[in-house]
Task: inverse folding
């Protein structure tokens, strides 16, 4: 009786070596992803600071805004 054919874990298929262009592309993509993450983090911090500043400015302007003087009646009826 013959054995059923099963895939062998260490058959003759070798992984393909990474070319110089692929190494360069991978390195460039890693750098770009790192820069994008840094940019996104800075953008989020600046957005939060701007929103806090705008909220504080609105509170300050509302508190400092003088009320308009009351209209005087002319006495005509």
Result:
């Amino acid at each position: 009786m013959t054995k059923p054919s099963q895939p062998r874990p260490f058959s003759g298929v070798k992984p393909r070596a990474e070319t110089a262009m692929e190494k360069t592309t991978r390195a460039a993509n890693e750098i770009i992803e790192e820069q994008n993450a840094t940019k996104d983090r800075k953008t989020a911090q600046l957005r939060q600071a701007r929103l806090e500043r705008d909220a504080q400015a609105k509170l300050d302007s509302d508190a400092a805004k003088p009320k308009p003087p009351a209209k005087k009646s002319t006495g005509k009826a």
About this structure: The chain is about 60% helix and 0% strand. The helical segments are 20-64. The longest helix spans residues 20-64.
